[in-house]
Amino acid sequence: ARSVPTADLESFAECLKGSRRILALLGAGISAASGLPTFRGAGGLWRSFDATALATPGAFERNPGLVWQFYSYRRHMALQAQPNKAHYALAELSRMNKEFLTISQNVDGLSPRAGHPAEQLKLLHGSLYDLKCTSFYCDYTRSNDFTDPIVPSLDIPKKELFPAGSGEDSSGVANEVDISDVSNPIPDLKPEDLPKCPKCNGLLRPGVVWFGEALPKDTLNYVDEWIESGPIDLMLVIGTSSRVWPAAGYTDIARNHGARVAVINMDPNDVAGRNSMKGDWFFQGDASVIVPEILE
Ligand code: BJW
Ligand code: ZN
To answer: Which family does it belong to (predicted)?
Structure first.
């Protein structure tokens, strides 16, 4: 049984067939079926903290140990997670169509791991596996560091993403204390226990974009040039609440460049209910089901 109404699917398929320049904007919802929580709504809390409140320069300044534990946990969970059928379908479309560009707000690394060609995938909010020095005069950065934990002090108990049943054979010991569970105390880490810069011994931070910070300039320039280099046929808006700027703005920009817009989201009130985000198509449901179905 199809999860998408046939009429919509037919008109979309026809548009897709005639489309060359396609832009996709990804948000946390595309990775939900891989077991990773989104930011807003259920799962958007880490311990008692709002995930978006930890994603700020101020939170890191006030308590780098806490923020590093949050990111260490997120890295661990994302490394355990597997890309889903939506990540794979978009990677496949990229290989088939070199004029397809994906801009992702996600830092989880699942699109690259699904084999999405790097030159057709722009990460607007950085990556959990990039690190950068916080010292003002130091330019040290490191990318694709999949070490888990990143330093020994961050080897703290974490929840298993998909616990191996409740049987005695599951690795229950490691799961007895779960750092994401608010009833368990959180270690008070000192700055000297946190990831350090090999160049200047300053504090390293995750290479992600926090609120109030500029998105990577090269990435923005690349996307702008891609947008300006011809009319856009189709835009796919997948699993994002479209509340965070400038990412959310790309949908209207694409529309102004001629794009028809397909929105794929679990929640019809989230995106489609807000007028400027209204798409020509709204496909409601789990992206890991819908995306492969409509791109097939
Ligand atoms: C499913 C599903 C399933 C669930 N299938 N769907 C007014 C105008 C313009 C800007 C601003 C403004 N007011 C404030 C700003 C600035 C601010 C901003 O946008 N704030 C808003 C909240 C109002 N923006 C910024 O600060 C940005 N920088 C900036 O503007 O710089 C200016 C500047 C220029 C020059 C110098 C200096 C500064 C930076 C934004 C950075 C965002 N960072 C984060 C954290 C990244 C690191 C980390 O991961 O920890 O990015 S916040 C968080 O939100 C993360 C996400 O990428 C981002 C977007 O969230 P997303 O992906 O949409 O997730 P959710 O949870 O919101 O939605 C999930 C959706 O999926 C829902 O719709 C579900 O229904 C759906 N879903 N399951 C399909 N299975
Ligand atoms: Zn440094």
So the answer is: Belongs to the sirtuin family. Class I subfamily.
What is the pLDDT at residue 1?
Answer: 55
| Buried b or exposed e, range 115-136, using 16+ CB within 10 angstroms | ebeeebbbbbbbbbbbbbbbee
Q: How far is CA 38 from CA 33, 91, 101, 167, 200, in A?
A: 10, 21, 23, 29, 35
Q: Strands 141-142 and 100-104, how do they pair? A: unpaired
Number of domains in the chain: 2
- Is 116 one of the catalytic residues? no
pLDDT for position 28: 97
Residue ranges, the chain, pLDDT below 50: 166-176, 275
103 lies in which domain range? 1-36+83-124+215-296
Confidence at residue 289, expressed as pLDDT on a 0 to 100 scale: 97
Detail the DSSP E strand segments found in 138-254.
Answer: 141-142, 204-208, 234-238
Pull the structure tokens for residue 107: 């830092």
d(CA 261, CA 88): 21
C-alpha 277 to ligand 1 mean position (Å): 15
Q: Ligand nearest 140 Cα, by number?
A: 2
Q: Are residues 202 and 281 in the same domain?
A: no
Using CA positions, which residue lies closest to atom 32 of ligand 1? 214
pLDDT of residue 179: 72
Q: Which residue owns the Cα nearest ligand 1 atom 44?
A: 210
Residue 222, classed as helix, strand or coil, is helix
Burial code of 232-241, b = ≥16 C-beta within 10 A, e = fewer? bbbbbbbbbb
Ligand 1 centroid vs 51 CA: distance in angstroms?
11
Q: What is the pTM of this model?
A: 0.93
